[in-house]
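Slide 14.
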Amino acid sequence: MENSDFLVSKIKEIVQRKMKGVGPSHDFSHVMRVYRLCMEIAKEYRGRVDAEVLKLAALLHDVAREREDRDKTGKICHATESAREAEKILKKFGYPEERIEKVKYCILAHRFRTNVKPKTLEAKILFDADKLDMLGAVGIARSFMTAGKYGQKIYPEIPLKEYVKENLTDGRLEGRIKDISKHSPVFEFETKIKHIPEKLYTERAKRMAEKRVKFMREFFKRLEGEIKGEDGVCSA
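Slide 15: predicted structure.
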């Protein structure tokens, strides 16, 4: 098996190469932000967290993202595909099978939509770090990148209740989006993002998430004011 630092360095190079075709919201920059967040959260768990497994899982968690992005059937899950790809990559370096399974578990559990819930500390940290990248200034930037890609409005023209009834399956906040072009950064915040802090596992991530969500709430409140022609100043 390779030296830990050398292995992490080589995996980073491989992931960067494999993710060249991925869109800006989930590209290698996203991977590295999640990686850094993992390391930050892990500081509160020194002596308890398996740092090597966490580093490898963070680097590989979206390595097969492009496969899902290209899929038109909705059947391909990037978490499942990334876990398989991670196994192939790590085996080439002679990484122990039992540790590969730990890395794969973290990757499978990092996504909301899988039936795998994070139970190990490493999996919980990766899950939380991945969700934190949807929040704050980065979250706003990512949401407007998506809005531009799908031709969404800068600010919605219909009330949230009407949108939920018309464009989310079963008329529920948790429902799947029917027409992505009718979605918007504001609706994304109201239906999903502002609820993320309560779904996180680590206390460190929850504290970070609450601050980031507060920033986003203030931003969208200001945006609403400017859209209405007001001075944009809002009270928290």
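Speaker note: The longest helix spans residues 203-227.
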